[in-house]
Amino acid sequence: MNKMVIWFDLDGVIFDSYDVWDQVVQGILKLHGVAYTQQIKEELWRIPMEDVNAYLLQLVENSLDENELERQKMNQLQSLYRDISLMDGVHELLSTLKAKGAVMYAVTSNYLELAELGLSSHHLSNYFVKLFSSLDLFGSDKNREFYQFILHQEQIDPANIVMVEDNMNNLRIGHELGIAGVYIEHPNSPFSDENTGIVSIKQLSELIPILEDRK
């Protein structure tokens, strides 16, 4: 496993953060008399990160401007990410992989500041050689350009990478670039291997045997 490179998504893979985002959005909408419905929740999962503010402003009928919305959202998120919960088995997994010589990257579509807060609050930063945020670099969700940027900057052979994600669209993009994928199952992003070789797991403890098989 010495030459294996692993790209870990953070939210939903390392951070148990689904409820955090629900809590923030629900709080903002409640202030403006808007109920946080299942339909809104599913739409927020579906749309790109860069379109979230516009969607929320539409829901509150532009009763606040984008700067104020961003301020309210970030104040709450910063507080919550300082005490973010981890998915089960994170410390054990990262410690084991580091001992085996794996080279690990944190690759997120979240705000860079929030990713850094979450990692540092649990003393996880040193497990990762680098942290990349598509929102910070390109102002967008993860896409082909973002992944190619990392490959070029880090001079990594895609054939040596395993991407661990909870979003099938991101894994499909990785597959097109020659990157193997492991999907952490999530109900809002149904699993379908589509002859891509993407592997599905329910919990992080299942990851080590999959990586061992690639040696």
TrEMBL record:
Keyword field: Hydrolase
Pfam families: HAD_2 (PF13419)
GO cellular component, one term: cytosol
GO biological process: DNA repair
Leading EC class: hydrolase
Recorded superkingdom: Bacteria
Protein name in the entry: Phosphatase/phosphohexomutase
EC code: 3.1.3.-
Keyword Hydrolase: yes
Any one GO molecular function term: phosphoglycolate phosphatase activity
InterPro entries per UniProt: HAD-like_hydrolase_sf, HAD-like_sf, HAD_2, HAD_sf, PGP-like_dom2
